[in-house]
Each structure stands twice: as C-alpha cells, then as structure tokens.
Design a protein that fits this description.
Layout: E1 4-6, E2 24-26, E3 42-50, E4 53-62, E5 68-76, E6 84-87, E7 101-110, E8 115-123, E9 131-137, E10 148-152, E11 156-163, E12 175-181, E13 187-193, E14 218-219, E15 225-230, E16 236-242, E17 253-257, E18 274-277, E19 283-289, E20 294-295, E21 298-299, E22 303-309, E23 319-320, E24 331-339, E25 350-357, E26 368-376, E27 382-383, E28 387-394, E29 399-401, E30 404-406, E31 412-416, E32 419-431, E33 434-442, E34 446-447, E35 453-454, E36 456-457, H1 460-479
Antiparallel strand pairs: 1-2, 2-33, 3-4, 4-5, 5-6, 7-8, 8-9, 9-10, 11-12, 12-13, 14-15, 15-16, 16-17, 18-19, 19-22, 20-21, 22-23, 23-36, 24-25, 25-26, 26-28, 27-35, 29-30, 31-32, 32-33, 32-34
Length: 491
C-alpha cells in the first residue's frame, strides 16, 4: 500500500489551548467488500515497537455485532517514516481461513526468537469465540504465518500479548497471553509460550480465581510479569503478578475503584487500562475516570488518570493528567499510553494519545470527536499542553456496533528512536453508504517534551466519591445480570 498523507488543514479544529494538528499518514485501508460487515472501516489498533521497527494491528471491515472481516497490519522499519501493510492469512474466509470474523488484535515482539507476534480471537458466524490465536512473523513483520492456537474455550475475549525481552531475565524469551473467559464469568486466564509463540502451555487462573477484562501484561527487567486489568464490572482496576515465568499467578488485588462518566453520543467506550513500563521496571497504568469532576452525586466528564507501581502489588495514589482545567467542558477517553523504553524514573518519557469530545454534554448528532496528545519528560510529574492530532469527526462517520459507534475499545502509542508513534482510527464523511474510517499515524514521530502542567493526586474526598459512584455502578451491573464490561461486551 502507498501511504497517504492527510493535511493538518483537513483536520484542525481549535479547542481551548490545543496545539494545531500535525500532518497524518494513512497506513492502511479496508479492501474488503463482503456484504455482512461495514466498509470501508478499520478500528481498534494496537502497536509495539522494537528498535526501528513498529508494528500495528487492527480490525478491518467491522461487523455490527462483533469482530471484523480480518486483522490488518502495518509495519515500519524506519521508526515510522514509511509503512507497508497487509492482512493476516488463515484466520477468516477473506484470507484463506475458516472463520467468519476476527477481533482484538494485540502485538508483541520476542527478541530471543526474533519473532513478531499478533494475538487475536477468531469468531464464528454465530458470533462465538472458541479460541485465542497467535500469528507469527520471522521476517520483521512483513509476512505472517497461519495462526497457532493459543487457547480454547467457549466464549473468549479481550486477549493481550507480551514477551520478556530482557536478556538477563531468568525467563527471557517467555511470551504471555492474557484473556478472559466470558462464558465463565470473565474468568481471567494466562498462558505462556517458551518457543516464540509456536506452542502454548495450559491456561491458568489467578490464585483467587479472579474475573476481569482488558488486562495488559508488562514484564519487568527481572522477569516479573505485572498484569493491570479492569474488573468484570469495570468499576475497579486490579493487578496480579507472576515471578516464576508464568508457572503460577498471584491473587488479583484492587489498585483503585473506578468512576466514569458515560461518554455521550452513543460512542462505544469504557475504562479499560492502558499499561506501559519503563527501563527500570516501573509500571504506568492510565484509564478514563471522573473522580476529579464530581459534584452533586454525579460526574460532568472524564479525565485520563494514572497510577504507578514498581512491583505490581503496591500502587501510587491516582493522579490526574492535566490536559485541561477540571472546569472545562472536555470529556477525555480511550487512552493509549507509551513510555520510552530507554528512559526511567524521574526522567521517564511518557506519551499519551486519547480521544475527546470538546463538549461532554453532546448528542449523537452534535458530538465532535477529536484525538489529542500530551507528553511528559519527568515520569508524569508534569505534562505539556495538548496537541490536537485529528478531528472533528461526526459519530455518523464511524462504524456502528451493538454498543455504539466505534473507533476502538483501545488505541495504542509506542516509542521508536526516541519519538512517539500513536496509531488511531480517523474518519471522514462517508461516500454514500461507504464509510471512510481508516488507520492513521502522525507523518513524523511526536517528541516527548517537558511540560509545566502538574499532575495532581486525588484527594480523600475525591476517592470517597469515586468509591461511592463505583458501588452504584456495580449494583447496576449486578441488576443487569452482571454481563461483562460497561460498553465492550461484544468482541
């Protein structure tokens, strides 16, 4: 594919103090025409970078009730300057496979075995999810194998993959896949590969048989795996660990309660975590949360908030990333965090991409969807003013799902050569009945620069308000039957 550049002029929409948008490069497009899904649509990207190579994977041709016609990938071997793309073989009927659909792409690299990996979940025509798959590339992310079966079950969801790339770790070369078994109350499952994703061990539960969804495992330099994850009701963030290469997993314990403002305009969104790790093994987790904007027993909009840990068991007080004033009308959601793996501690470089509505209290016909970016060079103590990357987009331009219009349950940002490379869905007006929603990234990597806006810790009162709102949301979730997720319960 020849990448196309979208000019800043086509996207700029001034909101508050946001900096004007940079030029964007389109890195993929939906090539399919099957009548059962929506074209041309691409949603829900993940990314991973190792050295000068960046790989992104995403759904292509979104179905209304779950999954896409295939998983697409786009690969850069020059730190985001140029991209090539394609579509995974052997999964769906669109590319030589037997499944009708596929969803939830996640990317990892195994340095020991020089292998790129994309995890996904195949979906039957009856919208069942019987397995987790892993596709492998041994030529730098340019071509991919038919999938390997990673795990099997009856209704699996929200898979994520990571590998231990520290040569001095006792578990160097181990790769770990997290997923949840929706057919068993969102039971959290972990499985391990020691041979570059060719084979996978038996799936294992946490020590307390915990439930949850949207986990994003990261690996510390000493080999400890830390898995931040949302509770099944998405009313708390939890975490669990393994120190023995995935032989066993600790109990999942609560990091904090989560309180959220329902994103308006029927946009599919929920407080799933985005997790990253620095060179020293400090773990950073962000999610959308409204505890800093509560009043009168309710919230007015979401901020992006963060908690950190050096061991996966003790976590810092939740802090607010200061994108704008708490008195603003802006609603922030669907974050994708990156941490420069060459930095750590008080000089760690962080980059955060996210979606937002400039006016939180909007409707499906009036909501304007944008993409923003902020960065920090001191481990998240202070942040830059926001840069607008894309928008405004109308919700009617987006693929529709049974949980609302969709850009993704997650997006992703990765560092390569010291600059950040977020990948996200951008939509322009459809051409008749044909959508125009595709994957984009800034044409040049985004710098992480020093900012002056200080992150602020939550007060006791704000945490109490969060716990109260989380309890109300949990009771409502139970009353509704305790179905998974607040807005992402179809794959």
């Amino acid at each position: 594919m020849v990448t196309a550049t979208l000019s800043a002029a086509a996207l700029v929409f001034a909101t508050g103090t946001a900096t004007a948008a940079p030029s964007l490069t389109q890195i993929s497009a939906d090539p399919y025409t099957n009548s059962t899904s929506q074209h041309a649509t691409e949603v829900e990207p993940d990314t991973f970078a190792y050295g000068s190579t960046v790989v992104s994977a995403f759904q292509v041709g979104r179905f209304t009730d779950g999954g896409g016609s295939n998983v697409g990938f786009s690969t850069s071997t020059d730190s985001g300057a140029t991209w090539t793309n394609g579509f995974l073989p052997g999964i769906t009927t669109q590319a030589g496979g037997s499944y009708a659909r596929v969803s939830d792409a996640s990317v990892a690299y195994d340095a020991k075995h020089s292998t790129w990996l994309i995890s996904s979940i195949p979906i039957t025509a009856a919208v069942g999810v019987p397995a987790v798959f892993t596709s492998r590339s041994t030529d730098g992310g340019h071509t991919w194998s038919n999938p390997v079966t990673t795990a099997t079950g009856s209704s699996l969801d929200k898979n994520w993959i990571v590998c231990d790339n520290t040569a001095t770790s006792a578990h160097y070369g181990n790769c770990y896949t997290e997923y949840d078994n929706n057919g068993n109350g969102d039971r959290i499952q972990m499985t391990t590969s020691t041979d570059g994703g060719l084979t996978w061990g038996a799936s294992k539960s946490t020590a307390n048989n915990a439930t949850g969804l949207g986990g994003q495992p990261v690996v510390q330099p000493n080999g400890t795996v830390v898995v931040p994850i949302a509770s099944a009701s998405e009313t708390s963030i939890k975490a669990f660990t393994s120190t023995n290469g995935g032989s066993s997993w600790t109990s999942a314990t609560t990091v904090t309660t989560v309180s959220t403002y329902t994103v308006h305009g029927s946009l599919r969104s929920g407080p799933l975590p985005s997790a990253e790790i620095d060179a020293a093994g400090k773990v950073y987790v962000v999610w959308q949360d409204c505890r800093f904007r509560t009043g009168g027993g309710s919230c007015t909009s979401n901020d992006i908030v963060m908690s950190t840990s050096t061991n996966g068991t003790s976590w810092s007080t939740v802090v607010r990333i200061p994108i704008d004033a708490t008195t603003s009308t802006v609603d922030h959601f669907i974050p994708g965090l990156a941490v420069d793996p060459a930095t750590s501690g008080s000089t760690a470089h962080l980059a955060l991409a996210y979606y937002y509505h400039p006016v939180a209290n909007c409707t499906a016909s009036t909501c304007q969807l944008d993409v923003g970016y902020v960065s920090s060079t001191n481990g998240g103590s202070t942040w830059t003013t926001p840069t607008q990357l894309a928008g405004p987009m109308n919700h009617s331009w987006l693929a529709s799902t049974t949980q609302g219009t969709m850009v993704g349950d997650y997006i992703s940002t990765s560092f390569s050569a010291g600059t950040a490379h977020p990948v996200f869905a951008v939509a322009t007006a459809p051409s008749g009945s044909v959508f125009n929603e595709a994957m984009y990234t800034p044409a040049a990597g985004l710098a992480a620069v020093a900012g002056t806006a200080a992150a602020t810790p939550a007060t006791t009162r704000q945490n109490i308000a969060s716990a109260r709102l989380a309890a109300i949301a949990y009771a409502q979730w139970l009353a509704a039957g305790g179905t998974s997720g607040g807005g992402e319960d179809s794959p």
